[in-house]
Structures
1.
Amino acid sequence: MVEQVPLNHALIVTTLMFFIGVYGFLTRKNLITMLISVEIMLNAVNLNFVFFDNYLFPGKLEGHFFSLFIIAIAAAEAAVAIAIFINLYRNIRSIDVEQVDKMKY
Amino acid sequence: MGTSAIIFYTIAAIMIVFSLLAVTARKILRAAVYLLFALGGTAAIYFMMNYFFLAAVQLIVYAGGIVVLIIFSILLTSHIEEKMQKPDTWKIILTSILGFGGTALCLFVITNHLFVAHPATGAEATMATIGEKLLGYGEGGYVLPFEVISILLLAAMIGAIVVAKRNKPKGNG
């Protein structure tokens, strides 16, 4: 794959994916769909790390491990976020971002 | 154009289309399923680069863990038949401008920079290398982040349980 696809094309794909995630994060109002957008952004960054690792520094596996750790952190983040959503839904019957300003008080 | 190039561009197109669908779908359960396809495409690209362990982790943790968790929380908090209302038009326009601007800036930088691929390609991450690096404390070892991550996961687990726990009803002793 490295010989046949230039790195620029691979990076274009991840750039598009990242900004699709940004778009979703800013337009969505439901907290779960916002979490989905964040996952897309994290995924694009992971891919970026792996592309750089595989194309420019093969054999060192640095991007590989960064991606591994990012995946672990994303899992922890998703678990805590969903716990918060469920508690929020139990208290105010909604997970719309415009109604969760009660978390401030 | 070789076979792997065709496969890569196909997977890339699938990933971008499903990411777009995941952020614009009006039904929330569909958004989660589209996310699953986008993450599966990423795992396929990891497979193409011979990072089999990373691809397996991606499939297990993302497709098997996070997406299932998201679907569970959707079923607990939303009516799946309900359509979400469209975001305001001015919001779509402003966000699109921001997104296109960011994309244009990044693409400008990427396409103007000449990346020289390392000649030694086809590096494969075997299980033995991964294990040695993950628990190594010399140069190129990752034992400190590994341990920190384990504590983070423990803290996240306890935190999730404490946050999601049902509070005792008031006045009931």
2.
Amino acid sequence: MSTELNLTLQVWRQPGPDAPGSFVTYEAKGIPDDSSFLEMLDIVNENLIERDVEPIEFPHDCREGICGTCGVMINGRAHGQEKATATCQLHMRKFNDGDTIVIEPWRAAAFPVIKDLIVDRSPMDKIIASGGYIYAPTGTAGEANETLVPKEAAESAMDAAACIGCGACIAACPNSAGQLFTSAKLWHLNSLPQGQPERFQRVESMVHTMEQFFGACTNHGECAEACPKEISLDFIAYMNADYMKSKIKNRAKSAQI
Amino acid sequence: MILDSKVPSGPIQDAWDNHRFNIQLVNPSNKRRFKIIVVGTGLAGASASATLAELGYEVHAFTYHDSPRRAHSIAAQGGINAAKNSRNDGDSVFRLFYDTVKGGDYRSREANVYRLAQVSNNIIDQMTAQGVPFAREYGGLMANRSFGGAQVSRTFYARGQTGQQLLLGAYQQMMAQVNLGKVKLHTDQEMLEVVLKDGEAAGIVTRDLTNGQVRSHSAHAVVLATGGYGNVFYLSTNAMACNTTAIWRAHRKGALFANPCYTQIHPTCIPQADEFQSKLTLMSESLRNDGRIWVPRSTTETRRARDIPEAERYYYLEEKYPAFGNLVPRDVASRNAKTVVDAGQGVGPLKNGVYLDFATAIGRDGRDAIEERYGNLFEMYERITGEDPYTTPMRIYPASHYTMGGLWVDYNLQTTIPSLYAAGEANFSDHGANRLGASALMQGLADGYFVLPYTIGDSLSAKLGTEPLATDDPVFKEAEKDVNDRTQRFLNIGGTKSPDYYHRELGKIVWEHIGMGRNEAGLTQAISEIKAIREAFWKDVKVLGNGDSLNSSLEKVGRVADFMELGELMARDALDRSESCGGHFREESQTDEGEALRNDDDFKHVSAWEWQGDADTPQIKHKEELEFEYVKLSQRSYK
């Protein structure tokens, strides 16, 4: 049976990208413990609207942990305290009656606030655009089974491809580094036979784009700790190894030309 | 109005090839002189944008998300069908075609479905080449599994995240074109009007969701790949932002809306826990392979599930359908769950679910085997409900999941407005009255990769040498004014209830009367109730804030307004179609066994509805008669 929680929220409110923001305290009363964290915010917002206060803007969409839209800092931790859990999958039964919860937007210089808890994450798409694909124009593909993919390779690629692009890794990192996100995409493609022809061009290009926006990695591991899909730190090592090789291979290639 | 489906004549096996030969081509060097707008970046939209750009067209892709990778195609779990016959189990293009037409209860267009089956194999090849990590056998060949409504194993998958992996594939292919400058990507942009010039689509008007800027965009052709309208039920498995606005705006401009009453209710979702619940989460249909569905026989049962003796349990699917048991098709499973819950036998705190019990399977195969098969799903269930499904049966209930209806399109995927196309779930074309599992991904990608890029050339070729209409043309200015006026109107109402309140109230009516069971009295009542709530909405809704910054209440209120009008049309369509077929179950039309009873003499047609200028004048129905030359119409039975 559902019980109800009474909570105190300290929420970052910021009217626009250039406006100053501040923490505002709200009482969240009568929150069913079966509700999700985002449903708790829905209830708070309904009450705010009733009192003619503009509702809190927060990022969300699928509410089943796959679209990567949602994500806020909850008591200083990206997606909150539960391991391997996106904000939308965090449920209020994990909190206690009387708790105070601090809610902030993702914190990273490359993710400027648009409003309240919503930030601009477009640099992540720019990293993908710079090489996060296998160039295969429609209609040119041969029969799928012509290229065998060992089961282990497919599984390992899938482990990396499970990334939902939420940005928690970057928000959790003291340096706002984009290594975990970038390396997950690189390993997804670089570990498959189909990804080999562009492998070293891809890694160089994506790493350079990443470095335009995000900080340097100093191996804290906060990213993997915060990741709702448990993307492994190993991928960063694989990326670094490929990047190093790319400096030789890509240079040798240009020398031949 | 005569609805010309433009289905090619001749044998169905050759229709697509002949059609491709006969349609007008655009010379490669001329393609760059054409500008195409694609609204939506899900499977259909992203694949269309990528392919059109590769062909050389200038593509402008629009999404209301902050990134194209967030479209709700991403949430599809199970898989994608293809007729590869890789299990040597007798599959073929013809069998996939046949199963799909039959699964849709004989309410789809044969030629479209045949083409879908034909290109299904190309999709798997294309996605594999792009690096989609499909599941593999140990030897490195592609694995696949079986799915509901088919007797062969033709479903390809990437763990339980097939939709995610396919969407990422299409998104990455599109981003490659963005990098080359061939696709111009517009994120955080919601399309709020389709703009017509002399009856033909000339462009769109969008609102920037981050700062409220309203802009016009013109093109030689406009593609709507904006998904389905399942959120008309308020609670559904759709993402929160999924809406009907893009296709509804097109409908209001003259595009016919086909079969709005064909909606799919998925049988295995986690039931609602309280009034504040915002969405329903799907639990994969595969659970029905090992779970047994039951409710207590008594309506006053209070014991825990495990304390209820066998004799007092009602395994209703196993009793009523001994041949298929717990594996009856989606619509049958859903309706039967409703029957027992309506009879007061429901389980859970709100008595709004049925048990899906794994005790027998765990006893037979061991806990480890069950964990290996469904571990991630059990974990997800526990996360949401706080209950352990290894020891306590899951509680499930049906929820709105997919909509087969949508904009009417011809064989070229063109709507009744020239130069306006609809692809993926936004159109009505391939699933008839019921969609089979693993067919939505197939159709979205078929439309975007292999159909639209060819067929769009047919209307473009006639426009060679013309420029897109200038965006300072009066038709654009007028549309921008309409958008701004509507925004202002919402902000000025100053009522007492939030947009969510009205959406919830609408959802209750739609679920009650236009849900799993429909009848004349209920549908008539729904029409008047929706009208009443629509009137109250326009007087009493409250939207705070302004139109010049990010304002999710403002985004929501426009979508709810369109859902209100759509809900009424759904009721009218359901009332008009006094037969049962697929997901549309009219209680007056059932067999002695309680199965959907079609009326082929009167309803073997597509109902396409034409807007009559305002929301208070009911739409007029046009018919497209369906011909079945290759598939034999029969009554479905799963006893």
